[in-house]
Structure formats: C-alpha cells, structure tokens
Specification:
It is a single chain. Helices cover about 60% and strands about 10% of the residues. The protein has eleven helices and five strands, in the order βαβαβαβαβααααααα. It has helices spanning about 10-20, 35-45, 65-70, 90-95, 110-150, 155-165, 170-180, 185-200, 205-210, 220-230, 235-244, and strands spanning about 1-5, 30-35, 50-55, 80-85, 100-105.
Amino acid sequence: MYKMIIVDDEYFTCEGLKILLDWESYNISIVGTAQNGEEGLKLAKTVSPDIIITDIRMKSMDGLDMIKHLRKDGFAGEVIIISGFKVFEYAQDAISNGVRSYLLKPLTRGKMINAVESVLEALDEKKAEDRSETISLDTWSRIKHYVDENFMRGITLNSVAETMHLNGSYASRIFKKKTGKNFTDYVTMKRMEYACNLLANTEMSVNEIIDYLSYKDPRHFRELFKKHTGYSPSEYRNAMRRKE
C-alpha cells in the first residue's frame, strides 16, 4: 500500500481530503498530516511517503519550498498541489520540481480522482522498473560470478546463457550494459590479466599457460597478449623479473 501525507494549514481542508475518496480502495494509506511546510518537511523525513498532497500557500513555509527541500534531500515520490491561486509562475515552478498535478480550489472528487490515478500510474511504473532493475542486477551478479570463475575454461556467451538458463541476447545486453564491453572482449581481458599473473608469479611455461587458458591456437594467444600488454609473453616475464 502506498503511503500518503497531507500538508495544509486549513483544518477543514485536511479533514475533507481524508474523506474525499475511499483511499484504501486506491491502495493508499494516509500516514500523517501537517499544518505547514516545516511540519510537512519533518513528517516526510520521518514517514517517507510515496505521495504528498500539499497546499501551495501556508504560513512558515509554503508547499513549493517544502517540495524543493525534499527534492534536494532525495525525495522521489509523487506530489499533488492544491491551490486557490491560478498563477502561471506557481504552476511552472511546481512542474519544474516534479509536481504531478496542480489542482485549483474548490476541489472536486473528479479532479482528485484524475490526479490520483495519474500519480498511481507513475508509482506503479516506477515499481515495475525497480523490480526489473533488481532482477537485472541479480542476473548480472550471477553471470559475472560464473564468468569470473570459469573464464579460463573456453566458455562462450551461448554456453554461459545455457548454463544460467537465460536467453543469449538478453545475457549479451546485460553484459554490455554493465561492463561496457561485449562478452568476448571481457573474457579476453580476464584471460590476459590472468596470463600476466601466471607469467610473473609462476614457473609455468608459455605453452602451459596457453593450454591452461583454453586457447587452441598459440599464435592467436600471442597476438592477443601483445595487443593487451605491448609485450610478447616471454618479454613480459623477463620484464617482471627485472623489476624484482
């Protein structure tokens, strides 16, 4: 259920808004009210609402100033402003601060229903995007872990996708998005980095390293290594040993 607060310095407006709609039928719970922007600011920071309905003109701090402060603090929820002032600058300022709806008094159920439906659509879309991103991050974490553990075994994008039970195109898009590299370039980078480590810290021969990293063509490995480091494998090993 989405959480909502009402900020208005008129008591009867606050009470009227509470009963204007059957909020629970819209999956909305009113979790607090405040009488001015300063109180609204504190309340919002305490309860982290998804929706704020606020008057624009109030003593102490008005609704727009409150929203500006909240946006600076990272508030990403939806805002509905109610106002008795049909002033273009107010509406323009509201829009620039991410206000979803600007409703003029007197309020009607029809106006509020339209505003609430627009707000709910935006919140539902954001929730779906967040869920998708969570799934994407989880998938990426599993792919990266598998690749980092198995890059020396001659894996391919298709073999990884099959092992992870993923669509190959989907796996490729995630890989590109998260690393900025395609799958082959990433695996090559991992293999070259590992080859450097083996050359510098073990007595394995170059041919043993080539075989260990599942390269079938020694010439291809040497070309990739030269491109990655600027050295041949033997030159790299000698250079590392001179540094010791």
